[in-house]
């Protein structure tokens, strides 16, 4: 399910991405802030599983709290729709073509220059005029202007400065900082540059780039900005899945299958352990069941019945049995092609465990109140008011306090008051 987030500044976001939801929340509790950082760490490590890692950490903390009555001490052992989204083998600008001089909106076999200087001369505050003494000079000026107009140059203005490096790498060209530096080796070449209408606006597409860098553009479309933003986040997660497969080339079953299987095996291991270690391993195993439980709950199923059946199926040796959200039942999830990168699961469990261990080692929260800073601010305003009412205050301040600079005597006064 998606969540609607309303910020204090009026910004509205609709998303189901855990990292985005946590980033937009105003978290004050220190332990909760650690969970926010945990989600960010998972996003950086795997790009996906940001909700999973927080859910696992919460379940682990809940299980750890149930162990405290056993008198144990935690310790550390060693405009369109989303369907219209398309991939463009080239470059796309969300800018319009300049029509100031009647230039073209489509150019084939284009030479492309990235200009980083002002073409027109700068305007000064001094009044000046150009005097043309005879008609031959006027003809020469008009002929020069006509040549530029007939050159059919397509102009895209107001490109962001921080995008220049990316654009030049994609177009395989170099930025030009002076009009004298126009040379073929600094230009890019493309089969087609065109302005394309898109909804209420227009974009510029550059395709067929010669010797193009390793760049592809995904043109995301949607009925409004909220849909586009969520589609962009989903696309980011999908690309991170590919990145995970590059880093660790293993896929495992999804649908809660790995978590319930790991929980079952840890539960069996806990039975052969003695003392507190057995309790800890058993609680860890029970905490992992929160993933299939939450998955079933979000799918509108009976979570208790689904998790119980899933546990029994795995006990019978069906290690690939998982929750099929589309069919509303438990099936062989690999046959349904529901898989996930191994790195996402391992990273989520590892980071959640480390975060919980860190929280459990904390026995108290110390809040540091900035009393001294507040007193300093009061002293400044006090001196300002004394000066405003022309009261004699030379006995305890120096003249430079009027410039809001602290002097030693103020600190002495503060120390005496606090004694």
UniProtKB/TrEMBL annotation:
The keyword Metal-binding does not apply. Pfam families: Cpn60_TCP1. Gene3D superfamilies: GroEL, GroEL-like equatorial domain, TCP-1-like chaperonin intermediate domain. GO terms for molecular function: ATP binding; ATP hydrolysis activity; ATP-dependent protein folding chaperone; unfolded protein binding. Belongs to the TCP-1 chaperonin family. It comes from the Eukaryota. This is T-complex protein 1 subunit delta. InterPro entries: Chaperone_TCP-1, Chaperonin_TCP-1_CS, Cpn60/GroEL/TCP-1, GroEL-like_apical_dom_sf, GROEL-like_equatorial_sf, TCP-1-like_intermed_sf. PROSITE patterns: TCP1_3 (PS00995). The lineage of its organism: Eukaryota, Viridiplantae, Streptophyta, Embryophyta, Tracheophyta. Keywords: ATP-binding, Chaperone, Nucleotide-binding. The keyword Transmembrane does not apply.
């Amino acid at each position: 399910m998606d969540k609607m987030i309303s910020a204090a500044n009026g910004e509205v976001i609709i998303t189901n991405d855990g990292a985005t939801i946590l980033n937009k929340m105003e978290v004050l509790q220190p332990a909760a802030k650690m969970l926010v950082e945990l989600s960010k760490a998972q996003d950086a490590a795997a790009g996906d599983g940001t909700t999973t890692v927080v859910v696992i950490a919460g379940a682990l903390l809940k299980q750890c709290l149930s162990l405290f009555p056993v008198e144990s001490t935690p310790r550390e052992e060693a405009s369109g729709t989303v369907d219209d989204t398309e991939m463009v083998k080239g470059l796309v600008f969300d800018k319009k073509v300049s029509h100031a001089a009647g230039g073209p909106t489509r150019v084939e076999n284009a030479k492309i220059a990235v200009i980083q200087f002002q073409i027109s001369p700068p305007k000064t505050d001094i009044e000046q005029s150009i005097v043309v003494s005879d008609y031959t000079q006027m003809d020469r000026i008009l002929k020069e202007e006509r040549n530029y107009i007939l050159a059919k140059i397509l102009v895209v203005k107001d490109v962001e400065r921080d995008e220049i490096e990316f654009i030049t790498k994609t177009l395989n060209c170099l930025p030009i900082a002076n009009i004298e530096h126009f040379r073929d080796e600094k230009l890019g070449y493309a089969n087609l540059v065109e302005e394309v209408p898109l909804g209420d606006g227009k974009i510029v597409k550059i395709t067929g780039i010669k010797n193009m860098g390793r760049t592809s553009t995904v043109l995301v479309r949607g009925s409004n900005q909220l849909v586009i933003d969520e589609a962009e986040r989903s696309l980011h997660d999908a690309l991170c899945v590919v990145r995970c497969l590059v880093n660790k080339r293993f896929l495992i079953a999804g649908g809660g299958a790995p978590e319930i299987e790991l929980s079952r095996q840890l539960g069996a291991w806990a039975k052969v352990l003695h003392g507190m270690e057995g309790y800890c391993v058993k609680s860890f195993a029970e905490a992992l069941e929160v993933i299939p439980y939450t998955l079933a709950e979000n799918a509108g199923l009976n979570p208790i019945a689904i998790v119980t059946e899933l546990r029994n199926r795995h006990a019978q040796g069906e290690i690939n049995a998982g929750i099929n959200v589309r069919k509303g039942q438990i099936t062989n999830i690999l046959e349904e092609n529901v898989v996930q990168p191994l790195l996402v699961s391992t990273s989520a469990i590892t980071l959640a465990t480390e975060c919980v261990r860190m929280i459990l080692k904390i026995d108290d929260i110390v809040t540091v109140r900035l009393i001294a800073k507040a007193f300093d601010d009061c002293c400044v305003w006090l001196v300002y008011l004394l000066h405003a009412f022309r009261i004699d205050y030379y006995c305890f301040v120096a003249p430079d306090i009027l410039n809001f600079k602290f002097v030693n005597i103020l600190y002495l006064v503060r120390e005496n008051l606090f004694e």
